[in-house]
Amino acid sequence: MAADKNEQANNNKKLEDLEQNREDGTDQFLTTNQGVRVNDNQNSLKAGERGATLLEDFILREKITHFDHERIPERIVHARGAGAHGYFQVYESMAKYTKAKFLTDPSVKTPVFARFSTVAGSRGSTDLARDIRGFAVKFYTEEGNYDLVGNNAPVFFIQDAMKFPDLVHSVKPEPHNEIPQAAAAHDTFWDFISLMPESMHAIFWAMSDRAIPRSFRMMEGFGVHTFRFINDEGKSNFVKFHWKPLLGLHSVLWDEATRISGKDPDFHRRDLWDAIESGAFPEWEFGVQIVAEEDEHKFEFDLLDPTKIIPEELVPVQRIGKMVLDRNPDNFFAETEQVAFHPGHIVPGIDFTNDPLLQGRLFSYTDTQLSRLGSPNFHEIPINRPIAPIHNNQRDAQMRQTINKGRVAYDPNSLGGGCPYQAMMSDGGFHSYEERVDARKVRARSDSFRDHFTQPALFYNSHSEAEKKHIVDAFSFELGKVETVAIRQRMVNILTQIDEDLAKKVADNLGLTPQNPEQPINHSFGADTDPQTVQPTEKRNYLDKSPVLSMENTVKDTIKTRKIAFLATNGVDDDALDAMKKLLTADGAMVKIVATKHGTIKTANGAEVKVDETFMTTASVLFDAVYIPGGKASVDALSQEMDAIHFVNEAFKHCKAISATGEGADFVKNETFAGKDENDKAVILGSMAKETAKPFINAIAQHRNWEREMVRKVPA
Ligand code: HDE
After folding, report:
1. Is the minimum distance from the CB of 356 to ligand 1 under 6 angstroms?
2. Whose CB has fewer CB within 10 Å in the chain, the N or C terminal residue?
3. How far apart are the C-alpha atoms of 225 and 244, rounded to whole Å?
4. Of 552, 581, 613, which residue is a domain's last?
């Protein structure tokens, strides 16, 4: 008990220490880094007003020197990202499977820091690149930091860490001209991929709508590798980790993504920030798929193969807890940029498997921090510090913050009373799972890793027609950007192994004919293996469909945090504006008034309404839906505004919900493409906001009306 109290006091002290690192200049004098108050921050010290600047100016030199060194190397991958603080809480004790304290005590709120990222682009690149997203969470548990460094796709492109530098070199901008930025649509990437059949499953995820999320808050996360849970008795179960967003899983269209990249390249970062600032805290449920140790070989795929999922139909995901992100960082650099994740940061109760990709990662992440953050003391940077106490005999190195007391920095010692001493397992000492190993030392890949086509086919077949079309379009776009025809052809040929119809459609868009690869795919699993013998195995069929893979089956009953544009100018009908606003905001949506000019507009009854955006500062692609309230003068003015007409047409083209009342409905019918099809369920026109609000809300909750995509005649 006393020990518990001490621990709690210690944790509180740690949190206080972290807070002390936060600086706020409010009501404070400006000082140098030595604490000397600065009297003139406008002028350097000169020999006369027009004279040369003096070397003596220690204030100028300190300021400029610090500035000159402001940049640190960006992450090699996942450079572009945004993060937030929050907490995690388990619903019920998982002690049956794991002894990790943060998963066994439902009363504990474990602080977390989550960072979402794209993989390929540089730090300043657009958020809306077609890419897998990083989904990394640092749990500051009482037993030390646990990092779950995952992605928004459950599978990876390669099976062995040996191929990671090759994969990343192929997707990064090409080395001779550093083109293209944050894009996989170029020759070197598809050259590599078309020679790597093991990448097919991840490629299908990357070509699907999941790779262009509507929001970080509306994407899933996955631990990817199979890990182990270890319980108090030392029993191990295999486990796969999932994050399920409570707002559902939603994406934008590719055409929209490219436009958002121009209108607001910070779209995802801003969306996360704004949601948290407005109190609409993003939430995910934490899920686990548990497989008993003795069932390791029961599946038709290998649990150690990171290019495979365990379909949820075979092993359901149990939702065991919730993460809430409720605080934005105070400083992007100090927190989001300096946070150092590592899949090797684990706590008792969690352990690794022999997934060869995971094993490689366990080396990589500390190594990369050494060059990025510059010192093995990166764990002392506030965002990386555990709340659990740190005591060991590690000493010194650049930028050491800790002031270790005493003369003893070795173990065993008698001068320090043998401290710090090792923890028994019963004291929470980490003890690696004693997996039995009896093997030859080889450079080779297991035969059980050779099935590359079954799961991409399962993924493709599980989607709706609209989603399938998006996948065909994505392949056609990406390969269309590839200049070397032989690479396009090779890729189309591999696609025939997965789905003939898809391959045909992509080939057709590229002006090619798919050929069944009669030549073996030269895929080497090891130095001395004969390529003939390591052919990928043929596609199998252990499951026709996995409906949870389709975004069609996601949460579609909420409009919380959805952004709705109201197009209005002077003379807008008061009731049409107010009633709709009230109903939408009551359901958690965010309404923005988009007008022709900034400032305020006057309603028909003379009320003043603040304008949030103008047609110059925003665009339909930054919204989920559009509403045009009636009011003759307002609608007449909108009819004269090309950008207003374009706004509605573009929203229509991107399959969004559109509603209008009174004269607004005439505007939609007469001036835009949106009113042409009376059967369109997501264009809701009427005379009163009170009547149109309900179907409008339903249509927004559906996210998009994909049926509309077949209408190709929209001039937007
Ligand atoms: Fe990473 N990865 N990775 N990765 N990764 C990095 O670490 C690496 C892999 C992931 O928001 C780097 O701190 C290797 C899979 C995320 O800060 C680096 C291999 C998954 C982030 C690195 C992989 C990931 C990283 C770059 C193959 C999903 C960003 C900077 C063996 C499960 C974390 C850094 C953040 C970052 C290496 C494969 C996820 C270079 C060698 C698979 C989310 O160490």
Report:
1. no
2. N
3. 17
4. 552
* C-alpha R_g of the chain: 29
Could you list the residue range(s) of the whole structural domain that residue 668 is in? Answer: 556-711
Ligand 1 neighbour 281 (Cβ under 6 A): no
Q: How far is the CA of 225 from the centre of ligand 1 (A)?
A: 13
**Six token digits for residue 457:** 């086919």
pLDDT at residue 11 in the model: 60
Please check whether residues 532 and 665 belong to one and the same domain. no
Is residue 545 domain-shared with residue 560, that is, in the same domain?
Answer: no
**How confident is the model at residue 528, as a pLDDT?**
74
Residue 496 lies in a domain: yes
- For the Cβ of 167 lying below 6 angstroms from any atom of ligand 1, the answer is no
Q: For residue 497, which of 190, 199, 130 has the smallest C-alpha distance?
A: 199
Residues annotated as catalytic (active site), given as ranges: 78, 151
pLDDT tens across 133-172, in order?
A: 999 999 999 999 999 999 999 999 999 999 999 999 999 9
**Claim to verify: residue 151 and residue 263 sit in the same structural domain:** yes
User: If you measure from the C-alpha of residue 137 to the centroid of ligand 1, how many angstroms do you get, rounded to a whole number?
Assistant: 12
Q: Is residue 519 predicted with pLDDT exceeding 70?
A: no
Position 418 in a domain = no
360 lines ligand 1 (CB under 6 A): yes
- 627 and 522 share one domain: no
Task: Give the CA count within 13 Å in the CB-facing half-sphere of 86.
Answer: 24
Percent of the chain whose pLDDT exceeds 90: 91
Confidence of residue 211 (pLDDT cuts 50, 70, 90): very high
Ligand 1 atom with the smallest distance to the CA of 116 is 11
Residue 151 alpha carbon, nearest atom of ligand 1: 28
How is residue 46 written in tokens?
């000169």
The pLDDT score that the predictor gives to residue 531 is 72
101-138 b/e (C-beta count within 10 Å ≥ 16 → b) = bbbbbeeeebbbbbbbbbbbbeeebbbbbbbbbbbbbb
Pairwise CA distance, residues 415 & 490, whole Å: 69
Give me the phi and psi of 701, to 5 degrees please.
-65, -30
Q: Please indicate whether residue 244, judged by its CB atom, sits closer than 6 Å to ligand 1.
A: no
Buried residues in 83-96 as b, exposed as e (16+ CB within 10 A): bbbbbbbbeeebee
Give residue 518's pLDDT band: very low, low, confident or very high (50, 70, 90): low
User: Quick one: which atom of ligand 1 is closest to the CA of 225?
Assistant: 32
